[in-house]
Amino acid sequence: MNKKKIISCVLAAMLSMGTLTALPAETADDIGIGITAEAVDYAAPKNFKGVPGNSKVTLSWDAVIGVTKYDIFYRTSDKEYYEKYRTVSGTTCVVTGLKNGTSYDFMITANGSTFASTVKNITPTKNITADGFAYEVDKDGKKCITGYYGVGGDITLPKGYYVGEKAFEGNTDITSVTAPEDYFFGISSFKGCTKLEKVVVNGSATFGAESFMHCIKLKTVQVDGIYNGIYSAAFEWCESLTDFTIKGDEYEFSIGGTAFHCCYSLKNFEIPSKCSAIYSNAFLNCFSLEKLTVPAGTEFYYDYGEHQMGYYYGAKTESDAWNGNYVYGVADGKTSVYFEELSTSGSGMELDNGLMLTMKKFTPKKLTMVVTKGSDAEAYAKKYGVAYEYASAPVEKLAAPTGLKASKKTAKSITLTWNSVKGAEGYTVYIYNTKTGKYEKYKNVKSNKCVVSGLTKNTSYKFKVAAVDKTDSGYQTGEMSKALSVKTKSK
Asked: For 185, which of 211, 217, 267, 365 could close a Cys bridge (C-beta 3.0–4.6 Å)?
């Protein structure tokens, strides 16, 4: 293997953007790339990618017009110097003899050129799925996703895994993520995925610190529940986030400091009753937030600031904002302030992760907190002058009907009866749909009897019934009965 070294102090500045600028021919020759003054300076190969394998990395790139050979260089990510691997023909190269679990950087030039492209932090592994998920088996025997080398778009995470630290960080190909079961998302696991728009977890989720931070296009997050916590800065600066839905309420969890800081588009948020704690600045600078429901048992903790929600942190002028002259204020729906906004293009201050920082004028909406008397949330609202209202007392659901049976059946109909439920205004009958796998509404009835018609002879059907009552906010369906399976007559 050729051990020619490229002096890092010459390359460092040029590699910072991922592509080298042209060097004088004699300078390039001095550092060992082997380019003469007469050489043609071809452009850097585009779409340079690396996919890890067992003790190897497969590199690929787009062809450069007029070029038949390319020079490949590599280094471990903690080193200053690149070493030349070899000169190859075509648009692929497999770099072998690498160490699994070690991160490598790679560089390519069109043979005879001073322009280069780089790809960094590729870690060889013997474990990679067909969909491009690289993983390691931890000490407990669990599979941890450590990187992703698939095509992006709408991705579904594999069952039986969890997402490790920085596994998808900075990926700009992924547009949606679906987890098929309970899932843990590690620190910075999807941070800076600037094209990600939707996250769905068909189970309970744990969101580690900064796990989806700077996902500026993320609009929707839907989870069945939260396990353990939404940790600090998990969704900070998710500026497009409008819908964060937590369907269930099975596990106790907490919301960490700045968890939703600068989620500018979030309008309503209902915190499940098993949220035990909210930490400082969790909903600070949610400029569109108008309604926040906080459970009675949720405690407020002030680890690095006192302004959880209903406040803004901004400047009165754009100049003050650039100079960091920020002040706190109660969001009143009238006062406008300047604060930071992130984007992938435009003018402003460029950040290390490829995002642009600009200043934007906001008018924070007036927040109303929905609280319970005697709660920490009520005390907070009173102390800091945030508008609040008391939560309505929960309405108890009617009991499930009992004694569901088929009192009569024919080849095309089944007559159902059940015991009456006290307080019921009527009943809803449900029939099981084998195609959707769900019970679907068949009919509303006033009495405890229903004739289900239009059925097929000699066929089994499943039914459930629920009582319905009228409340101040409309009709409410009670608990469903146990299922009843009935078969129509053959003739």
From this structure: 211
